[in-house]
Amino acid sequence: MNSKDNYAKKNEDVRIQYLSCSDINTKNRLNYNLIVFNINNYIENITSYLDIGSQEGQFAEYLNTHINIKETNCLDINDVSINNGRKRYPQFNWFCCNIKDFITNKKYQVITINNSFFYFFNKNTIQKIFNMLEEIGYLFISYGDSNLKPLNITDNKIIKTMEEIGFNYVNSIKSFEKVDTKVNYHITANRWYTCLVFKKN
Ligand SMILES: C[S@@+](CC[C@H](N)C(=O)[O-])C[C@H]1O[C@@H](n2cnc3c(N)ncnc32)[C@H](O)[C@@H]1O
């Protein structure tokens, strides 16, 4: 099995394990600030917010310290993360669910997907996320180059797929340039992040 197959296999839902990045450190602070900066550019107050792949809610909490959010919802497939998150941030609503199976009639004004889009990048799930947004809703997706490049998924491919579903592409910003463009695995200092902004209408 080549490294690309290995990477794809690692990302099958059934293989998802508890990941240890549940606290804000220098590495994810860069990424988090990129999204916070972008959200602040478009929205002043958030009425209903959903973080998909929230882990223990560390990003949702960080966002709450930067912008006024009336209702925060966190969804993750991993029950350990969800149970820890419930204890850490009981003020949030928690859903332990695979986003692919999540059923709701609720509409969210803002949805964020940080460092988890590569687990469920497929049209059915993107359509589901589209349906979950309010008519004037925003979706913010952020990822590191080491996450999607090994799967041959580029920014343009993501944007094209999102537009096919009906999203309007608004903007893209990157945190910093890599030192060595040949290296695309997890080395904090040699990694850039991208944040894509989409609107429903
Ligand atoms: C790398 S962590 C990112 C955590 C957090 N968003 C952050 O940026 O710090 C990816 C998270 O996505 C979750 N995840 C992966 N596939 C998922 C799915 N299909 N549905 C819901 N959550 C999923 C994992 O359990 C994990 O907590």
Task: Using brief descriptors, characterize the structure shown.
201 residues; alpha/beta; Rossmann fold; seven-stranded mixed sheet; disordered N terminus; binds S-adenosylmethionine
Summarize the topology.
Layout: H1 3-10, H2 26-42, E1 45-52, H3 58-64, E2 68-76, H4 79-88, E3 93-96, E4 108-114, H5 123-132, E5 133-144, H6 145-148, H7 155-165, E6 168-174, E7 193-199
Parallel strand pairs: 1-2, 1-4, 2-3, 4-5
Antiparallel strand pairs: 5-7, 6-7
S-adenosylmethionine is lined by residues 13, 16, 19, 21, 28, 53-55, 58-59, 75-78, 81, 98-100, 114-116, 119-120.
If you consult CATH, what is the topology? Rossmann fold
Distance between the termini: 43 Å
Q: How many structurally independent domains? A: 1
Named CATH architecture = 3-Layer(aba) Sandwich
Low-confidence stretches: 1-21
Q: What is the quaternary state of this protein?
A: single chain
Order of helices and strands: HHEHEHEEHEHHEE
Bound molecules: S-adenosylmethionine
Task: Give the mean pLDDT.
Answer: 82
Q: Tally of extended strands?
A: 7
Major β-sheet, in short?
Answer: 7 strands, mixed
The percent range for helix content is 25-40%
**Radius of gyration, rounded?**
16 Å
Shape: globular
Q: CATH class, please?
A: Alpha Beta
How many helical elements? 7
Order of strands across the main sheet: 3-2-1-4-5-7-6
**Assigned CATH superfamily:** Vaccinia Virus protein VP39
User: How much β-strand is present in the residues?
Assistant: 25-35%
